[in-house]
Amino acid sequence: MWYLISTIILILVATIQNSLFESFKHIGLIPNFALVIFIYLLVYEDFKKAFPLSLVLGIAMDIMSTGIFGFYIVFFILLSLTIDFIKHNIGRSKSLSLVIIITAISSFTLIFFELLSVILTLKGIGLTSIVTIMKQLSVGALASIVASIIVKPLFQAIYSFSERNKGMVHYE
Amino acid sequence: MNKKKFITLIVSIALIIIFLHYKGVSNKVEGKLQQTTSPIGVVLSEFSAKIKFYYSLVTHIGQLQSENNELKKTNNELQSKIAELDEDKRENDNLKKLLRFSEDSKVNWIPADISAFDSSNIRQAVTINKGSKDGIKEGSSVISEGFLIGKVIELRENSAMVLLVIDPTSSIPVTVQGTLASGLVKGQIGFGLTLENVPQGEKISKGDIILTSGLGGEFPRGLIIGKIEEVLNKDNGIFQQAEVRPAADFKILKQVLIVN
């Protein structure tokens, strides 16, 4: 049941990201909510529970984008493994700072690969264009970081509710 | 199951999914998933278009007033031109009859709604809620409010991906209305368009309308793309360059027409 609900929520998040939010991208301040929510899930949930969802979100994002199919699947799998590594070797805490750091790193990784794909497609690109892209995308990454702070109360409310429910089932 | 085996299992499933996609086996399943999310996407895209419309209405109210006056003036001019054209049409019809011209227009217009925007920050593409089942073909031109906005690059049963003309990889052969100048309109990073490869001898100026030339057969001839905003003339260059303002408003794209 948990997987079914999470799958539906993630597909919905991907749809909202690709329709409602991305249509505002000319403003240049579009946070990647799909990424932020997935990072929260990875940081706060058990690895074995959250890892298969990287496939769900990856497939949904790949189907809805025009880029190379498989890019998001691979990206989200690597992101899951990285977060698991950090949780086990650097700090196990389910903290906001970990979410913010991961959001920043993953946003800039996405930017790097987007830039790389454009350079490869256009077979060369001017320095001015690179600077423009970097400026535009850095603002986007910053927006994602801010979004990770805004999303926290909402995520924590849902998370503590599901934890409480789990407890109730346990004591029954 | 231990952790290593679990990771191997998920990664293997991912690789199989990617492999099946490139083999074309999973197209139907992917199409079904997109078909399921498409209605939500259409509603959300329409909602965002409305927000953007009202936002621009509030922020540009002063500009709108002066634009309105300008449009009233243009409208009066156009009314008189319509009258002239009506007369020309009548004359044209008569001449066609005389030449036994067969009017065999096979152009098929398919309306569609935008269901998703590409999540990349650089690529400019949208997904529409009509696909091969509705008769759309790969390479078909896509129009919004009478202006060319892009072409179909990827086709599924119930949806299609449209590469917008403002995408950095887009390149369209064009002519400048009222002149013999021809060139290429290319998408720019950051929502703009540039006119390139126009020979130095050709006279182009601000306000000139850019139309598809039909060269190469990729786009039909005579579709409006935009207006020249600034001519970037370099005396030592072989070609002229110009900044082009797209005619279609890409910020409030909602419904489109596919030309088959």
From TrEMBL, chain A:
- Give the GO biological process terms: regulation of cell shape
- Per its UniProt record, what Pfam families does this chain match? MreD (PF04093)
Question: Where are its TM segments located?
Answer: 26-43, 55-78, 98-125, 137-159
Which InterPro entries does this UniProt record tie to the protein? Cell_shape_determining_MreD
Q: Where in the cell is it found?
A: Cell membrane
Q: Does the record's keyword annotation contain Transmembrane helix? A: yes
| Annotated keywords | Cell membrane, Cell shape, Membrane, Transmembrane, Transmembrane helix
List the membrane topology term(s): Multi-pass membrane protein
Q: Which residues form a coiled coil?
A: none
User: Looking at the UniProt record for this protein, which Gene Ontology cellular component terms does it annotate, in alphabetical order?
Assistant: plasma membrane
Domain of life the protein comes from: Bacteria
Family according to the record:
Belongs to the MreD family.
Protein name as annotated: Uncharacterized protein
Native organism: candidate division CPR2 bacterium GW2011_GWC1_41_48
From TrEMBL, chain B:
Q: Which family does it belong to?
A: Belongs to the MreC family.
Segments passing through the bilayer: 6-22
Pfam families in UniProt: MreC
Sorted alphabetically, which InterPro entries does this protein's record hold? Cell/Rod_1, Cell/Rod_MreC_2, MreC, MreC_beta-barrel_core
According to its UniProt entry, this protein's organism is candidate division CPR2 bacterium GW2011_GWC1_41_48
UniProt keyword list: Cell shape, Coiled coil, Membrane, Transmembrane, Transmembrane helix
What is this protein identified as? Cell shape-determining protein MreC
A Gene Ontology biological process in which this protein takes part is:
regulation of cell shape
